[in-house]
Amino acid sequence: MKNIVHVAVLFMVTLSFSLEGCAVYVKPHPSSDAIASIGKNKITQKAYVVISDRDLALEQSVHFGLIGYLNPVSVKVGETLKVYSEEYFNELFNEVAFTNQPSDSIGVVFEIKGFNISAFEKAAHLELHMAINDKTNKQIFEKLYLADGKGHFPLYSGNVTEQQHVQETTEEAFQKVFDVISKDIQKITFM
């Protein structure tokens, strides 16, 4: 009987720690290959990247199965957007600054239209709107970018593995979008 009580107590303690949940935050960075693919012809003007406070604070939690529901993996989507913007745009422009408001230079305005990770496929889906304004705040370019990260087998295999899957699929979705953004920006003639 003592063994059953000990097992029951151990089970309850373990269960209580599991129920507390622990969010793991993923903050991916672009690969050096992606940065190298941009090229070395920098745009000689300063770019102001505009990301709203709402988008900057955006997080997405992902739950995989019952065990994964207790320990979600969270992606700081807004911070990831800022990291990718900074890394890519430092390669594209002579100078980059972040602001909440458009200014009297080139303004690159982002809006996250959607981000989610499928619990079934473990694949990230990103919808990112970008508009570029010239020095007079006139819009000279606009586009909605869509990309999916690679999916993973839908089986919960531990928090560390799930974090790695979420990071990989998030990185892939953002990298695909920013590779296209970089090519589009290089085609624009800035005055």
Provide keyphrases for this structure.
alpha/beta, 6 helices, 191 residues, three-stranded mixed beta sheet
Description of the molecule:
This protein is of the alpha/beta class and 191 residues long. The protein has one domain (22-186): ABC-type transport auxiliary lipoprotein component (Rossmann fold). It has 6 helices and 8 strands, in the order H-E-H-E-H-E-H-E-H-E-E-E-E-H. The chain has helices at residues 2-20, 32-36, 53-56, 65-70, 77-92, 159-186; strands at residues 24-26, 43-51, 59-62, 73-76, 93-99, 106-117, 124-133, 139-148. It has a 5-stranded mixed sheet with strand order 5-2-6-7-8. A 3-stranded mixed sheet has the order 1-4-3. Helix 5 runs parallel beside helix 6 (159-186). The longest helix is centred in the C-terminal third of the chain and has 28 residues, at 159-186.
Helix content: 40-55%
Which structural class do the helices and strands define?
A: alpha/beta
**CATH-wise, what's the superfamily?**
ABC-type transport auxiliary lipoprotein component
- Mean pLDDT value: 80
CATH topology: Rossmann fold
Count of individual beta strands: 8
Apparent shape: elongated
Architecture per CATH nomenclature, i.e. the level-2 architecture: 3-Layer(aba) Sandwich
